[in-house]
Amino acid sequence: MFETIRLAKGVNVHVNETTQFKTVNISIKFKDKLSKEKASARSILANVLQHSNEVYPSHTALRMVLDDLYGTSLYMDSSKRGNEHIVSLNVETVNDQYLSEEGVLEKVLNLMYLVLFKPNTEHGLFKESIFLREKNAVKERIESIFDDKTRYAQQRMMDLALPEHPASIPANGSIGEVEKITNEKLMEEYRTMIESNEVEIYAVGDVKPELIADYIRNYFHFTDREKPVAAPSMELKKPSQPRVAEFEDMKQGKLHMAFFSPVTFRDEKFPVMQLLNGVFGGYAHSKLFVNIREKESMAYYVSSSYSSQFGLMFVLAGIDGKLEEKAVKLILEQLEEVKKGNITDVEFGQTKALLTNQLTEALDSARGQIDIYDQYMELTEDFEPDYLISRWNKITKEDIADAAKQLSLEMTYFLSGKESEIDA
Amino acid sequence: MHKVEFEQLDETLYHEKLENGLEVFILPKKGFSKTFATFTTKYGSIDNHFVPRGEKEAVKVPDGIAHFLEHKMFEKEEGDIFQQFSKQGASANAYTSFTRTAYLFSATAQVNENIETLLDFVQEPYFTEQTVEKEKGIIAQEITMYDDQPDWRLYFGIIENMYKNHPVKIDIAGTVDSIQDITAEHLYTCYNTFYHPSNMVLFVVGAVDPEGMMKLVKENQGRKTFEDVEEIERIFPEEPLEVAIKERVLNMSVQKPKVFVGIKPEKMDLQGEEMLKHELAAELAFELLFGRTSDFYHHAYEKNWIDESYSFDYSLENGFGYAIIGSDTAEPETLAAEIKHTIANAVEKWPFGQADLDRMRRKKIGFFLRALNSPEYIANQFTRYTFNGMNLFDVVPTLEQIEVADLQKAFSLVSAESQQSVFSILPPEKKEAQ
């Protein structure tokens, strides 16, 4: 799918030359080791760099150039995967072929260069007003999680279950750490990112791999760097309180459960966990949906998800505040069924069919191609869907039951408005 | 079958209107593995007052019924239709909006089987009192979930403020109380009136062979019998131009206040080319006035009146519409006043010229071309355009014709003070510590 060209040690360009899309997508990913402090600093950095630069010194000036380039989208974001923190610069621009103008791609590459290498600085630091404004923006972004009760409940559970563990560190960092970041510290983080982070550059569209590689080689000046040694996964420790209930002013009850599994992304049995998740709660044909939503009419959403980097399985359900106990009991009963190997041929076949569909379908978007390739690069050099599909097809129901037996329930978290109802 | 080529866009659209009135559109996409299909009826939450098929008297149905019906379409005597799609490797879903109910799937294999399943399950209703009762618990949880989402409450809050009588002000899913009144008989009444093929559009896009697909759809439809095509009579109340409520506040658990300014447009009966031109012109005007390159945005962001949640939107349908601008903000009153002030200034002295228009036009053309990478966007938007007598692929040529005067004219319909309203969500007052 992608052709890889090495530009320097730890710096690679991956290009998928294709006419499938009307646009060209480019992502530059900077990878570093995850910590709360790093995540906080790098989230501010992403905001500051996309705000403006030396040549386009105001937000408005930069956005006007992008509008002129047929509404080219350009943004930076912060994400995490396992023990890695990733800052990405993403652009999408219309292929010249559809425009009455040529040379748009070169102009866009030049803008990417300015964003990364010509930041808006004064006296060797980022422009103070921008630094302060963007620091505040990141803080507000973290605070806004509270308004989305599902995200908030999940974050609360992770903080309680695995404090300070990479699994619970948000990609945007924490308010406490954001507040501590100074302009000096941010400049230091910027240098580290440009000079010593692992860099993976992706391009998808009707472009020649050599052309992209040459442009970046000639202008971006990325020097050799060490790939961060993939830190061994931190062990998951048993939470001190296995069951926590908290209250906010709200109507619905949010039930979140966390299970540990010894199987992670790097494990041979990783595809078994994907199937287990599908049979148990990943889809509308899964045991959780069929039994708890359709048979019991207890929930609108009830599903499971598998976080492969850490070997965590989550169950989420939106239920009446009074029904926590009943819901937990029913969810565990369904898991028991999987453990006993009570999986029908239909459930088994449906899950494989939908996993296959989901994967193949994701590759119909440029962003999907980049994300999947970047994720699986660690396991295989040239990812093709069959890498997973052939594995799923070899798995038996017994394998799934065995994987389910290894799951241990570590935490049940319930966020509801129960208490305030009693007050009233 | 008609074939229309859009050379500039490198797309070919196939179309046929079948004998039973169903409009079928097929758009093959080179290089794609998946096929995405939507089967949509021109029937949404606003269609709550109508003359049922075969009757003379108009009826009013309980709030939330179009959405309830959408849920119940998936249940059949032999079981849940999601199971059937899963067996055939397809991800299926559905949604209900103010004006449409859409059933959809995406699949990378067994596309023909999945198309048959899509057509058959939507055209074979099965409702019983027992299955209707069972669904009430599920939908009540869905409504409760939305009740806890401040952004949803903000959106509906501003629409409720703007509209006095029009059913757009009713939440799409209804309320926990209103859905209790729904019966199987209601569902059949709505189904028989609005799910006739002549009120529906099938759109198939992606890895699809147009000839084979059209043949399959025609054969499927040919095997079924339908009643004659009949005009549907929908009844909408008179709606004054001025907003129903000028200002309203809701207290709920949020970390920071939220505010929306809504503007109700004049002339909401446009359709076809006229509607397309007005809609695009109004979008361009609002983009210039409130977009990321506007003076307003720059000023508001620097002053900390808006944050990353800031948004603005212009939406128009037959009979209702709105422009909405707002953000999470520590200063809701100041922000609302600034937004209104910006509108008033533009009314007094129109600030944009040819260069502004040219830049926005380029941006909009780029956005449209990007969107054509998405089968979901094409199918959903094309259907919406069709129901309003417009063609999605006319967007670029229409954009190219628009002049500065058109922007000014479109804006003049969405700007008077009496058409504006403000809705805010504030954190509850902190109780004094005892």
UniProtKB/TrEMBL annotation, chain A:
Peptidase M16 C-terminal domain: which residues? Answer: 180-354
- Pfam families cross-referenced by the UniProt entry: Peptidase_M16_C
Question: Residues of the signal sequence?
Answer: none
Instruction: Cite the InterPro entries for this sequence.
Output: Metalloenz_LuxS/M16 (IPR011249), MPP/UQCRC_Complex (IPR050361), Peptidase_M16_C (IPR007863)
Listed transmembrane segments = none
Annotated Gene Ontology MF terms? Answer: metal ion binding
Reading the lineage from the top rank, the first entry is Bacteria
Q: Output the Gene3D superfamilies linked to this UniProt entry.
A: Metalloenzyme, LuxS/M16 peptidase-like
Could you tell me what this protein is called? Insulinase family protein
Q: Which organism is it from?
A: Planococcus halotolerans
Automatic annotation (TrEMBL), chain B:
* Domain Peptidase M16 C-terminal residues, every copy: 181-363
InterPro entries xref list: Metalloenz_LuxS/M16, MPP/UQCRC_Complex, Pept_M16_N, Peptidase_M16_C
Q: Which residues form the Peptidase M16 N-terminal domain?
A: 63-175
> What are the recorded GO MF terms, alphabetically?
metal ion binding
Q: Which domain of life is it from?
A: Bacteria
Name listed for the protein in its UniProt record: Peptidase M16
